[in-house]
Design goal:
By secondary structure, this protein is of the alpha/beta class. The protein has a domain of about 290 residues: 3-Layer(aba) Sandwich (Rossmann fold). Helix content is about 35%, strand content about 20%. Strands 1, 2, 3, 4, 5, 6, 7, 8, 9, 12 and 13 form an 11-stranded mixed sheet that branches. A two-stranded antiparallel sheet has the order 10-11. Strand 4 and strand 5 form a beta hairpin. Helix 8 packs across helix 10 and helix 9 packs across helix 10. The longest helix has 21 residues. The radius of gyration is 21 Å and the shape is globular.
Length: about 450
């Protein structure tokens, strides 16, 4: 399971005066909770589906006829057995989405939320309202769905995490499958003829997307929900021995955490603090790694290493001086919007166990069309090609965004750049749209898992 690793370089602080001033003058970005609070209560009532109970719904206008629906969905008896569904779509009139031939279901990363990575203007004022993959696809008549994982909705300050005991990968897969069922049902109720959806998994979402598609190969075709796969910069399994060894090596420590009663992962709390300090006191010396400033440290968290989130610029001492592809202020706002808690520790145990034991979730039987997208400086890059090639799909497209020579991978297009970069629309979102349009309706599905 990929976790954030901070490798801090020594060196003098230099080169961020102008950037610090720019960050200091920006208004505070709204949090996801603030955005949700501004949405109007929707008048429609969505029927309960497959054991999923809609407990709240909201509608908000993004611009013109592009709207954003959210549905809080209870999937079990527990207080935190709740996910949040998102839908970004055109409307004919209020509460009446247009009928679209194609849709897509987006699964975010970890620790991550749908709005944070797929609708960045909702958490940052530094980019236009439509500079997000969700708005871009909706403007091109794609019905965009996605979800917030249940753990991403657990509030900061939670004291008792006993409810996360045993919360592993199978529960995550089951919740995502339920979310897909609800999305299919809502689309069917508004007239769409084919409820199956292509599933885009980003980062952690790749694990779930592949696992769901693999599990479905063991079910009758009429009961399947996945029409195609778009794994983005991550893998379920790898043939890279170094990565396999790393997963196996990390497993005992994670198992010990679970055994000692540590079920939660508080990565998000740390990242939010990094972002808040970079926003409110960018020029102050970082408490996490002096002599870097708070802003430098935030940039370093994003841009350091060969596997990084955002491509960066560094001075001769190894200190960050800016970002190449993503607005630095947007990166800071993304950190500030991270959910407090990441996927439970048991999920990490399960993923590393999967890596070590080579359980493949029936990947060899997956036949739906696949579009793999990697980032040369991201978490997976071309290593993610392997999963697509071990499936039975006869329709596989693969590409990696690489903008620099091979020997400059440490500065190249990063993991988050795929959705946050100034040029992400041309480099990533347009190819996704082209692929969706080429695989719409049942024509492409007929070459996949069958009927």
């Amino acid at each position: 399971m990929n976790r954030i690793r901070l490798v801090v370089a020594a060196g003098a602080v230099a080169g961020l005066g102008a950037l610090s001033a720019a960050c200091r003058d920006e208004p505070v970005a709204p949090t996801q909770a603030t955005v949700a609070a501004t949405l109007d209560q929707a008048s429609e009532r969505v029927p309960d589906v497959d054991g999923a109970r809609i407990i709240n719904s909201h509608r908000g206008v993004l611009r013109g006829d592009i709207v954003h629906y959210t549905y809080d969905v209870a999937l079990g008896p527990g207080q935190f057995d709740v996910i949040r569904l998102h839908r970004v779509v055109r409307e004919r009139r209020p509460h009446a989405p247009v009928e679209t031939e194609e849709a897509v279901f987006l699964l975010p990363g970890n620790p991550n939320a749908f709005v944070q990575i797929f609708m960045e203007p909702q958490i940052s004022s530094v980019i236009p309202w439509d500079q997000s993959v969700a708005a871009f696809l909706a403007e091109n008549d794609i019905d965009v769905w996605g979800m917030d994982y249940a753990w991403a909705l657990v509030p900061a300050g939670t004291a008792d995490f006993g409810f996360m005991r045993g919360w592993g990968l199978q529960k995550e897969i089951r919740f995502a499958e339920k979310a897909l069922s609800v999305a299919r049902s809502v689309r069917a109720s508004s007239g769409e003829k084919d409820g199956r959806l292509p599933v885009l998994g980003y980062s952690y979402g790749v694990y779930l997307a592949y696992a769901i598609a693999g599990d479905e190969t063991q079910e009758p075709a009429r009961e399947r929900s996945v029409k195609g796969l778009i794994p983005v910069d991550e893998w379920l399994l790898t043939n890279d021995e170094t990565q396999i060894a790393a997963g196996c090596a990390a497993l005992p420590d994670l198992q010990s955490l679970v055994a000692s009663g540590v079920y939660q992962d508080e990565t998000g709390i740390f990242l939010k603090e990094v972002g808040d300090l970079a926003r409110t006191a960018p020029g102050d010396v970082s408490q996490f790694y002096p002599p870097l400033t708070n802003l430098q440290f935030a940039l370093f968290v994003g841009a350091s290493g060969n596997q990084h989130f955002v491509g960066g610029y560094f001075d001769q001492s190894g200190n960050p001086t800016g970002l190449r592809y993503t607005d630095p202020r947007l990166w800071v706002d993304l950190l500030r919007a991270v959910p407090p808690y990441a996927a439970p520790t048991q999920v990490g145990v399960d993923l590393d166990s999967l890596e070590c034991n080579r359980f493949d979730y029936h990947l060899h039987e997956v036949t739906v069309p696949i579009l793999y997208i990697g980032a040369a400086g991201g978490l997976s890059g071309r290593l993610g090609y392997y999963n697509a090639t071990i499936t039975a799909s006869r329709d596989v497209t693969k590409f990696t965004v690489q903008l620099l020579p091979d020997d400059q991978v440490a500065y190249d297009f990063g993991h988050a750049d795929l959705f946050t970069a100034r040029d992400a629309q041309r480099l990533v979102w347009q190819p996704i749209l082209n692929w969706l349009l080429a695989h719409r309706s049942d024509r492409a599905y007929a070459t996949g898992n069958g009927r």
